User: Fold this.
Amino acid sequence: MALEEDLWLCRAGRGVSDAQPDGFAFVPEGTWPMVSIGRPDRRRDRADVIGQSAAVPVSATPGQDAGWMFRTADVTKVYPNGVRANDSISLHVAPGEVYGLLGPNGAGKTTLVKQVIGLLRPTSGRITLGRYDLVADPAAARQLCSYLPQAPVPIDSFGAREAIVLCGRIRGGDPVLVARRADALIEALDLGQWRNKRGISLSGGVKRLVGFAMVAVCPGRVVILDEPTNDVDPLRRRLLWQQVRELGDLGIAVLLVTHSVLEAEKAVDRLAIIDNGRLLAEGTPSSMKAGDRGQLRLQVMLVPGGADPELPGFVKRSTRAGHHLMAVVDDAEASHAIGWAQDLVGTGVAEEYALTATSLEDAYLELTGHGSSDGGEQG
Assistant:
């Protein structure tokens, strides 16, 4: 059975028995099962939060089902020590949209996410999902959002498939359908050889993929992925991005938190770049690169231990990361750029070079002054 149909069945709640464990609330056929961990809160209308808030057309695409739009409005977080981690951040993510939140370490990305899922309370501003105020009602946030944190998932004592199935059951999925969906995800992510291996024996990359499957087995209306490809090998990174895209195609709003600019450029529909807690720019990857039209990127691999070469006058801006020198030139200067790079190779200063179109990373560098890296988020 196709992965899309398995997810539809998980969301539809077909075959759910009337006799459910105490503390788990399932919703009727045709709606998306959501669940609170532990005993239901008797002070709230459980059917309203878990039932009505769960309905979503499977065919939703960006712009459709706009009643479930996710929004932040002027969200500001100031810690008691005076540090302003977020400064009036406003953005929106439509159902079915894959939205990137990019920024260097300490930019405030993770702080914003913690406010979305109710772990931190904003100093000011609003966070809403459909008609639900997630600041006033953090319990609804935890029911309606699925979150893959950057930290390793704590599954050392569980088998990989066991952890995925358990997460789907906690979120309210029917046992048979959750098992089918878990098997489909294991196959789609090429995790078969580890399906019964306990988490303590898994590599960081495999554990990361299992964590993604735990989120995707029965996802919320908003799926938040914080650096989902950390430690994942190149082959399975591609498989992971395919599954992220499928979540969006099925009408789920995906918020991708990353500082891997080149990966985000290929995966997202729209993105925001934040730094020092402020939103610097927002738009599609193409619109972000509009200011660099008519320009090219010259990448030069310098010989280790060598001195920086003197830059010619036609280089508009440059940055160096390790042995990689990146320079931006006007396309009219392409022949001069190639000649200069060939001279560097010929004189033993460089090993190789490439001249390509500018990328989202160039716009990112210009806005933030930071390079794309593979480190961890600290804010």
Remarks:
- Residues 1-6, 11-64, 371-378 have pLDDT under 50 and may be disordered.
- Residues 234-249 form the longest helix (16 residues).
- The chain has twelve helices and 14 strands.
- The CA atoms of residues 300 and 325 lie 5 Å apart.
